[in-house]
Amino acid sequence: MDSKTLSSSIAKFSAKFCNELDKSTSVVASPLSAEYILALVALGCEGPAHEEILQSLGFPEDDAIRSSFSSMSSQLKSIKGITLNVANRVYIQDGGYKLNSALESDAIKVFDAGLKTIDFGSGKAAQEINKWVESKTNQRIKDLLTSDSVNSDTRLVLVNALYFKGTWLKPFHKMMTYDRPFYVDESTTVDIPMMSAKEEFFYGESKDLGVQYLKMQYEGEEASMLVVLPEKVDGLNDVIKKLADGYDLLADVETLEETKVDVTIPKFKIETEIDLMEVLPKLGIKTIFEPADSGLTRMLDSDEKLFVSKGVQKAFIEVNEEGAEAAAASVGVVRTRRSLNPPPLIFAATREALWCVFIKGQMAFVARYKPDRTQLRTEL
């Protein structure tokens, strides 16, 4: 699978993932972080479970996973101009348990994952895992696992931690940030800090999707923020559904042109916790959660029947005048069964939009921002 095909698969999975998240409030997620965990699980299972993950992620077979994630891991290590940490770790129950030899090789060579034995029944395992996640996300992701997430029945915990911080190639000036009305629905606004600039940005429109696009690059020009702004105040849900149904967002992104744009966008911060055991079955990934027959037969050198007993992701994003910071961590717990000078175009994100962070062409984070309903004002 080449880089372009991989980017398309990740973008489609991201849209489907985002379509299943809470639509009533601000939310941020890293489908890419979830993909790392799911791809590793795919290499450790067979039967219906295996097919479900491959189909959901858009991979034809295991070798496509190996080549794609190995290549992506190498690319992300060499990125310029931003801070990026991508860390994977497999925790294995102490006491003679070992990863299947083929999966161990894939974990190390494909995902650059660290392996560590741990006593899940000690009562301190969750704390140790949480400290590792904090260290890899600049302390942004805390308490990923609760103390009761793991116990003596736990055999494996797979963790991906993803941290990003970038400075805008063209920063916003703080003196141009003012409180302005943001529409939470067609007739109601709330005043929030909005940043403004008249600069050369990549811009485009899609009549088919009913949106404006704005792409702002980070220093190094290997990462960018794409804002997908619906024409209608209440149009974001329809836009995300079209993306989830297969609309080719990346084809549109390739047509964007650099032009003078009068930009107004919100300054915001979002933190979200996502129960993957609720989201993934809606994407067709169900069997790995079944205690009786999960298909996880290639995970351990053991005859014990395993299943995924917990899946959670915590994510964070902050967008301000200097740039953006984002972090996410996903975990899967596996237990044994028991023109010349034209006037600038206007891009005013005064309504709910989709915010996408691309790193080396891969969609790493997605967010939708809706301010809290405080200090609401009804437009007359």
Automatic annotation (TrEMBL):
One of its GO terms (molecular function) is serine-type endopeptidase inhibitor activity. InterPro entries: Serpin_dom, Serpin_fam, Serpin_sf, Serpin_sf_1, Serpin_sf_2. It holds the Pfam family Serpin. It is found in: Secreted. It comes from the Eukaryota. SMART domains: SERPIN. Residues 11-371 form the Serpin domain. Keywords: Glycoprotein, Protease inhibitor, Secreted, Serine protease inhibitor, Signal. GO terms for cellular component: extracellular space. Belongs to the serpin family. This is Serpin domain-containing protein.
